[in-house]
Amino acid sequence: MKYSQLETPRLILREWRESDLDDFFAYCKSERVGPAAGWPVHTDRSVSLNTLRHFMEEGNVWAMEERQTKRVIGSIGLHEDPRRDNANSRMVGYALNEAYWGKGLMTEAVQAVLRYAFRTLMLEMVTVYHYPFNLRSRRVIEKCGFCYEGTLRRGSTRFDGVVLDNVCYSLLREEYEAQQAPGPAGLQQ
């Protein structure tokens, strides 16, 4: 399934192109990005190219293009959640070039994806997970209104053989809609 292009004030979430390879490799080679998301550091461009082609074929991962520079600075996807047997739910996953950390860009992207998931795809639920040490991801998840479900102890084996806990969150459509409802004085919460 190919997802529609999404836009935010600072980002365009769009399909991948092979011409994005340099920008993609720039953050995939970082020792701080991949392992925190559960994948190995890309040691050469061919690894990034294969992954990029997979993204293009599957169509469920957006390239995060910064509007101002037109550079791809990250990726965000909606995937089937291997931990759930619910056809009307998806799992969000993301990675961001570390030069852009701490600027609220991933929160902005996740919020756009949630709007698309609940209002266009009409999903019942969106899930997300992070490793206990990935506090930046936890902060994005909390800002986006996900509900903490618990920690799946020793829930997955990372690419390097390390077994890690998975901190689990979800957001139901009705919870999302309640968060978007106008609060006092007509302001959205």
The portion of residues forming beta strands comes to 25-35%
Q: Helix content range of the residues, please?
A: 25-40%
- Separation of the first and last Cα atoms: 32 Å
Q: So what's the overall shape?
A: globular
* Average pLDDT level: 94
Largest sheet: 8 strands, mixed
Detailed description of the structure:
It is a single chain. With 189 residues, this protein is α+β, with helices and mostly antiparallel strands. It has a domain at 6-128: Aminopeptidase. It is built from 6 helices and 8 strands, in the order E-E-H-H-H-E-E-E-H-E-H-E-E-H. It has helices spanning 21-28, 34-37, 45-58, 105-119, 135-143, 173-180; strands spanning 6-7, 11-14, 61-66, 72-79, 89-96, 125-130, 147-157, 163-172. The protein has an 8-stranded mixed beta sheet with strand order 1-2-3-4-5-6-8-7, with helices on both faces. Helix 4 links the parallel strand 5 (89-96) and strand 6. The two termini are 32 Å apart. The model has no long low-confidence stretch (mean pLDDT 94).
